[in-house]
Specification:
heterodimer; A: mainly alpha; two-stranded antiparallel ribbon; 13 helices; 2 strands; about 0% strand; B: elongated
Chain lengths: ~325, ~325
Amino acid sequence: MRGYILRRLAFALFLVVAVSSASLVLTELAPGDYATGAFGLGARPEALARARERYGLNRSIGAEYRDWLAHAIRFDFGRSLLYDRPVAELIPERAANTAILAITALAIATLVGVPLGIVSGSRRGGLVPHAIRAASVVLLSMPPLLTSLFLVFVAARTGWLPIAGMRSASVPPGGAFADLVRHLVVPAAAIALPLAAMFERMQAQAMREAIAQPFVIATLARGVSRRRVVWRDALKVALRPLAAVYGLVVGTLLSGSFAVEVITAWPGLGRLMLDALSARDVYLVAGCAGTGAVFLACATLASDVALAFVDPRVRE
Amino acid sequence: MIRRLGVALVAVWALAAVGAPFLAPHATDARFPGLLNAPPSSLTWAGVRPAIHPWRLVNQLEQRYELQVSNIVPLRWFADGRLLVSSDEGRAPLLLLGTDSYGRDVFARLLFGARTSLALALVSSVGAVVLGVLAGGVAGYVGGLLDEGLMRLADFVMVLPAMYVVLALRAVMPLVLPAPIVFALLASIFAIVGAPFIARGVRAIVRSERRLDYAIAAEALGASAPRILVRHLLPATRGYVAVQLTLLIPAFIVAEATLSYVGLGFPDPIASWGTMLHDASANVRVFADFPWLLSPAAAMFLVVLGLNLALEGQRTSGLESLR
């Protein structure tokens, strides 16, 4: 067990280092650098050269990468050229915003999708399972890009909810927290709806398989009530596939949150990454990518460890 | 029944894309300067012929239009090589889905955009299949270090959020490029990101198939490794690959739309569903006052729904994250 966890830890560390290094080198290799972007096409060569020297962009890629790595080990991730602030100062706020959005969406999707999946998977016919299934198929065809456009459209037409941003300019009656929640509804629901549909389909499938197992039939034969069998005995087995995908879902969450952050102007990592990439702000790109990789690494690690506890076969 | 409905939905869009020059009343870059952000034409009848009421601009600043109910402009079938156009194109063009902020026909752009978006998704998926089958087949057949290396690489790519990988690969290329190069670039990026999902499954199938009697018999008869792989083992992956191909298409349609939405897609005069949403996003009133500008989103939903219905009951891919 300890060996298994150590191996997963090593992979998590590798993931963070590899992703941030790769994004740094890729951005360095990209045509154009921060100076050409900031000074425009008509810039004088001397001005460009001076700016490159000031920002430290005139060195070879190897030298620059070594320098960045040496600093990054001491938790100094360089200075953003675009915002002229240390990367380590810029990222935490944006990362927290993305985390708020992603965790809320994941919680909603789990609380909605899993119970519905248990219901639709444990019944053979009837109106309710069919309605759930139809709703899932429709929502699965609406990725976050489309759900966010649709929800913003509804919010704009009805005026029920704010359609963009994270906070109002001034604190409205009800306090800052209520204001944040009101702003959170549209983006969080946009990510959560397709995810809930995915969870529902997966949970229904797992439930159907669990119910077909002999121990369930045996329990039913002993006279235990159907509801008790479904929600207690079969559910324990049927939760395993969901635990296995929970680590992978973080990738889906981050991908989905990118489109949603851009459409609803949620100030998260996605927008920052896009701006950094377009401006060739190398250190900020590496910082954003590294932060995303930390999210990913934590989630896969947590889900691997949880799975190893639930299912001894995984440890080998 | 449900699957047939899905196939029909997809077929309608495929026909719309192929027949765009005939079905669309206007070219994608034709502008109607007096009709910026005009609502869809209001259809009526002039005797047995379909007709429209023209729009009259009542407020230039707010771009509000009023219907001229007393004025009826008949439509003409099969004029100028197009299915249905207005008999007075200059003053009252046929605008089935209104116009965008440049005064261009949204319906025409939607049809031509279907060509760009669907063709890109199709080409990318085929590319991903070719790459994935090649890598997965070789890894599964040869085994050993090559297998280990390729599959570790595939796992690594699959863990990453696909949208960010696509974004990073696109953004490190020159930001402004001509349309054909954008098409080739996006198709290659999508193919590379999609390939691991195919390679994983193909490798597993090839690995288990090559231990079966027929593969061992072919080997004993002296068939060469490429022959066994291509003639005997890869055909066994056909069903899997067909399903995966269908699952990649929606992912790539949405990926193109997302990239174009943030301004990293096709350059301006080219119509694709993503660039149409990008143009719409410049206007804050689109959601409340000009909802017809969101029609590409509805088109995307219908295509993806059609593909999902056609696959109802089949396995799902891991690339949902791209959407």
